């Protein structure tokens, strides 16, 4: 059984079409159909349902075949990459996944050092939601992602980067929806940063959260759940910066990681308050367990760890 047959079946599975698969593979569609027919005869099973006018779907046997084929092709690619790296060292490509706020804070200084040391590596940054990045990383389509715990996909391995505190963000001016305690603090001469309150004091306030699919949304929801309530969601966004802008205009409150404060241009018009439970989030490097971790990816982790150790 030739490797190209695995590639053929996998491309049909991905595109749900013999015609599209043939185009992507740069072969004639009748030739592709003939090769799949031979493969099915060799295995004595049908791999795909063929119904005119409908997308091509795998049979139960076909689904098992394409999933195993995907693993075999990844193993082939990993072996090829490892042997090449042993010969040529750190070079080639590195695909790094992250959400916008995390990547925007951590990656620029890290990549500056990386490119100075390894100028021959072509880096591709992939900014997506946490949910999307988990899928891409687990499928081996991203070499390394920077995400926050928890990571519950058993296909993935994690390596801890850092733990940072979370802050509740309020507008500079008092609003009717604010708890009385907060209004009193804001009216006093004591800086709001010097006060801490329990999250449950904000149970009746409008919350601004990240959209479904972002890991930090889950972090905030779990924080509220520990306070015994579900937040009243006023707005949802895919950007922590947009969330803070909405807060600035008095439309609700939000919660941000510490790095969100450092990146924010709203520090003079927003209040950042610590909560008495001292909530945190932990960032990790995430990569596929069963896939070869390239020298390119390992070099990035090593540079980060060296920089982190030099700060302590």
Automatic annotation (TrEMBL):
Signal peptide: none
Family: Belongs to the LysR transcriptional regulatory family.
Name of the protein described by the UniProt record: LysR family transcriptional regulator
Superkingdom in the source lineage: Bacteria
Record CDD domains: PBP2_LTTR_substrate
The HTH lysR-type domain, residue ranges: 1-59
GO cellular component: protein-DNA complex
InterPro entries given in the database record: LysR_HTH_N, LysR_subst-bd, WH-like_DNA-bd_sf, WH_DNA-bd_sf
UniProt keyword list: DNA-binding, Transcription, Transcription regulation
MF term (GO), any: DNA binding
């Amino acid at each position: 059984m030739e490797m190209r047959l695995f590639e053929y079946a996998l491309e049909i599975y991905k595109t749900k079409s013999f015609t599209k698969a043939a185009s992507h593979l740069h072969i004639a569609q009748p030739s592709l159909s003939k090769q799949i027919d031979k493969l099915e005869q060799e295995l004595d099973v049908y791999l795909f349902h063929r119904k005119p006018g409908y997308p091509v779907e795998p049979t139960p046997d076909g689904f098992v075949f394409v999933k195993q084929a995907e693993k075999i092709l990844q193993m082939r690619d990993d072996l090829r990459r490892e042997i090449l790296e042993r010969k040529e060292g750190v070079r080639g490509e590195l695909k790094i996944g992250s959400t916008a706020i995390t990547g925007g804070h951590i990656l620029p200084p890290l990549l500056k050092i990386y490119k100075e040391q390894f100028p021959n590596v072509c880096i591709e940054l992939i900014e997506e939601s946490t949910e999307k990045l988990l899928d891409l990383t687990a499928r081996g389509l991203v070499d390394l992602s920077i995400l926050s715990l928890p990571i519950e996909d058993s296909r993935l391995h994690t390596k801890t980067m850092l733990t940072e505190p979370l802050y509740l963000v309020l507008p500079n001016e008092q609003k009717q929806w604010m708890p009385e305690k907060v209004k009193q603090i804001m009216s006093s001469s004591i800086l709001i940063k010097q006060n801490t309150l329990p999250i449950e004091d904000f149970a009746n306030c409008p919350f601004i959260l990240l959209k479904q699919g972002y890991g930090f949304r889950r972090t905030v929801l779990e924080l509220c759940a520990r306070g015994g309530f579900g937040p009243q969601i006023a707005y949802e966004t895919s950007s922590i910066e947009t969330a803070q802008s909405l807060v600035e205009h008095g439309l609700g409150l939000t919660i941000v990681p510490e790095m969100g404060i450092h990146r924010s241009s709203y520090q003079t018009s927003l209040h950042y308050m610590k909560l008495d439970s001292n909530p945190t989030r932990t960032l990790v490097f995430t990569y596929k367990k069963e896939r070869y971790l390239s020298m390119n990816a390992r070099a990035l982790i090593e540079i980060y760890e060296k920089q982190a150790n030099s700060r302590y």
